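Q: Can I see a sequence and its folded structure?
A: Here is a first one.
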Amino acid sequence: MGRLLDGRGPNGGLNELGREVIAEMNRLRMLVDLSHVSDATVAQAVKISKAPVIASHSSSKTICQHPRNLTDELARAIAETGGVVGVNFVNEILDQTSHERASAGRGSVLTFLNQPTSYRPEELDRVAAERLKGFFMDQTNRPPFERIIEHILHLVNAIGADHVGIGADMDAARIPLAREGASTARATIRRSPTRSAAEVWRTTSSRK
């Protein structure tokens, strides 16, 4: 991916090769997916693509400032191409507290992995794997299921229901699914003060 960017680091945009790749993907009718790129790259890609683009597993930066997430402006720009934003269910992408805690946790894990240790060399891989497993499986700061609904409803209000999808990213991490199941989603949407939220629920229910 780095070969397609302009060399300005994680906040940079596309270089000439990147623009050529988007043009070729358009020609081949391949979807351009912007979930793992910078804001600058999203802004450029929506302007040069001749076909709809998507962010297959991103959420709203208004609710959580994770770099994977999109500002309302960029989400609208994707929608204006005819594309879709797929809401990601990963804890730290949904929830600001989880994001901050995960960022701090990664720092402590990296410090641990790089500091001198008394473990024998043949034990280092096992010890590192155990520490990393503990970090990734830690659910002490698991956000509520309602956070998923907040992202969906915010994006529906910002860019329209036709441009909001589900990109749960279930292979990446445990997700904050409520044990109560669909009844929790229904109750959460009914509690929403926005008329569009109720309309979304009625529309999706009527399609069953």
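Q: Show me another, different protein.
A: A second, unrelated one:
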Amino acid sequence: MTIDFYHIQQKEITANDCSVSFLLRPEHAVFKGHFPGNPILPGVCMIQMIKDVFSDAKDIKAHLTTIHQVKFLELIVPEAGTILTLHLHWTAAGPGQWQVQAGMIRGENVFCKFKGVFSTT
């Protein structure tokens, strides 16, 4: 699966969990503007990836309705060949709603932690 600024290499989905390994596309325009000469992955792009992966795992068009907590713990520099992993876990929070926890990692490095609610409405 390819979604503009990243490319999914591997995906594992269970009933309430998903794990994807992906590569960033360092040549993408988002990295030229954030920041010129010193590119990093914007936090909003990390949240977009969480939404995209959750939507794909559930085969729905999810909307982010609430962010309870998000922490950007380390900068992600887009380097060719660097594989990152995104882990998601979700539980039902009501009709058409899911409480989602996510973490973006590489080895022992945790780049982002997220807790929020997605819905189909």
